[in-house]
Amino acid sequence: MPDYKFKREKLFYSIKEVADMFDVNQSLLRYWEKEFPTLQPVKTEKGTRQYRQEDIDEIRLIHYLVKEKGLTLPGAKQKLKENRSDVVHTEEIIDRLKNIRAELMKLKTEFDELDEAYGK
């Protein structure tokens, strides 16, 4: 599961930072940029990509549809075109549930460690 939770400390993120957030190759982000017209990071004079929060949010949706749900790129494009608000809503719910699960697993580990410490 990619860890694309991050502090919004910066206005722009490099392609490496964004690729690391989603555990994908930088080349995949460049490819998605060609395939999804809604993904348009700012480019410097030298052509360096600078991703804004809205770009990262778009990548989050594409990643969800392609990598997690297994849709093809044409399928993901169609889904975003037809039901974008449903995709956003569903992805947000799934993300919250994953966070809750991770927190519960952390608590379980802590309880297991306490049980071991007290010999139960």
Structure description:
The chain is built from four helices and two strands, in the order ααββαα. With 120 residues, the protein is mainly alpha-helical. Strand 1 (42-43) and strand 2 form a beta hairpin. The longest helix is centred in the last third of the chain and has 45 residues, at 73-117. The two termini are 32 Å apart.
Q: Give the termini separation.
A: 32 Å
Uncertain stretches: none
Helical fraction equals: 55-70%
Largest sheet: 2 strands, antiparallel
Strand content: under 5%
- Shape estimate: extended
Number of helical segments with 4 or more residues: 4
Q: What kind of assembly state do the chains in view correspond to?
A: single chain
Q: Give the helices and strands as they follow along the chain.
A: HHEEHH
Radius of gyration using CA atoms only: 18 Å
Instruction: Give me the secondary-structure category.
Output: mainly alpha
Overall residue-averaged pLDDT value: 88
Q: Let me know the number of strands.
A: 2
What strand line-up does the widest sheet have? 1-2
